[in-house]
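ok posting inputs for the zinc ion job
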Amino acid sequence: MTKREIADVLNDIATLMELKGENPFKIRAYSNGARKLETLDEDLGALIEAETLGDIPGFGKALVEKIETLYREGRLEFYEKLKESIEPGIVLMLEIPGLGAKKIKALHKALGVSSIEALQQACEDNLVADLKGFGKKSQEKIAEGIKNREAYGKRHLWWRARAVAEPILEGLLALPEVEKASHAGSFRRKREHVGDLDFIVASSAPAPVMDWFVAQEGVKEVTAQGETKASVRFESGLQADLRVVPFKQFSFALHHFTGSKDHNVLMRQRALARGLSLSEWGLKPADAESFESGLEVDSEEAIFALLDLKFVPPELREGFGEIEAAEDAGFPQLLKVDDLRGVFHNHTTASDGRASLGEMTEAAQQRGWEYWGVADHSKASFQANGLNETRVLDQIERIEKLNASKAYSTHVFSGNETDILPDGSLDLEESVLMRLDYVVASVHSSFTQTEEAMTARIVRAIENPATTMLGHLSGRLLLRRESYQLDVAKVVDAAIANDVIIELNANPYRLDMDWRFWRKAAEKGLLTSINPDAHAPDHFDFVEAGVNAARKGWLSPENVINTLPLKAVTAILAKKRQHLRGA
Ligand code: DGT
Ligand code: CA
Ligand code: CA
Ligand code: ZN
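and the output
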């Protein structure tokens, strides 16, 4: 275990002992030990090796033994037993915001409550209000905390977190005391959802920065505040952490708190192999006393360079092979929003979209796109007012007329998001599918098929010569609905073999096919299309979320069909159609 993980365990032990009502001196020994460990400059492994950990004031014999065991074995029987000795429902109560171990113990003792549900009931029955040391106000707070626990515990979509994150960074950068400021954590790595936001600031005057941070608009609760660290919670339950560091520590702190944890572990190992010790505080010779006299850098680039690595873009810091690439050839030129010249898979009022063909074309033109594609639903998606064959033919005619009128400089492709029926056939007649410029084939029904049936169903749709691309591969809705079961590798291989594109659905709730699959799939030759699945003009913005996911999947412009100019795209789509027309 690392220093930090051990500190977490010690803090846990202190909390659990408090729940049990043990000796406060003992409890404090653990929480003090945790804090000492967290701020320890020396390398823990070296101290243990030299058997000098006990020389540090505050580390008694019992504590040293436990730290050593955790360091060597990664587990501690004392801790396991302690956890087992307390009812799980009581431990869970710690998740109620504003409720600490001491109060939980008192509630348990006085009312016999040993679960959140029981505590909630006790609040409703007005039992907590009458307790000594609690009262009506505190009962209300507990009840509200129980209600909020769910919202606070959950993760937040990157897209929504951004609305909170961007003004915070702007606010920090506007403060005169702030020398540098950046996002960090999963938000900076552009994960599809984030647990909390992290900010790193360089300043020699932390106090006013902290004051601004905890008092900013929208803050509902200050959950922690120290001299250089603070955490706040917003109305939505989203939390934000701030760390203020001296200027010369900024790049190290930024790198550390950007993570991921897996990436950090690999970086630290690499440093150690070079006789160096890397941390949020700096980079120093492993045997040097402190980070004070460590190496100085003026950027993250410099940290990577000191470890003989090319710069790793934050999106790729997931411990997914980025270190190997950074010590070797480096990275592909990652996709950017500006690389896109148009988009496919969008809806209009003909099915379930909220804007007309003209309005959507206007919006695409405003973005400077050379083309955009309609892909309204097909008839099996009756709940979305899907089009039957007659309506599809009528829409094709309207689009042809619109293009011929030259009313807009943006070309409109006529496509359709055609349902993949439970048996893998497509929802519209082949003669009609032939007339379309392209087909996005998607699953919208029978989600509960077995993995085998679902995989065969999708592969059959891929093999249909009318299919140009596959829509939202897994059917997942992030934080809302799991993906259906399917064998992604098989589907990817079938798509490559049949010249079918797999979309990267850019709706922030979908981001599907998942970024974790893209690097390998693209290496094998799979093409994608960044598809906003827009149901209104402003949904075209979603392409940014799609590009984030594409970057996390190591994709560059050549992997993405909608980076191509109109002429080249037209030729690729036509090729698929010629094949079909010839059949
Ligand atoms: P999240 O907030 O769950 O979406 O994910 P992150 O990656 O933002 O995680 P967070 O906020 O807990 O911590 C920010 C970064 O700080 C994390 O990516 C890496 C670093 N970090 C935090 N805890 C540890 C740790 O125990 N060990 C190491 N090596 N790094 C850590
Ligand atoms: Ca975070
Ligand atoms: Ca955090
Ligand atoms: Zn769809």
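notes: The chain has a mean pLDDT of 94. The two ends are 62 Å apart (CA to CA).
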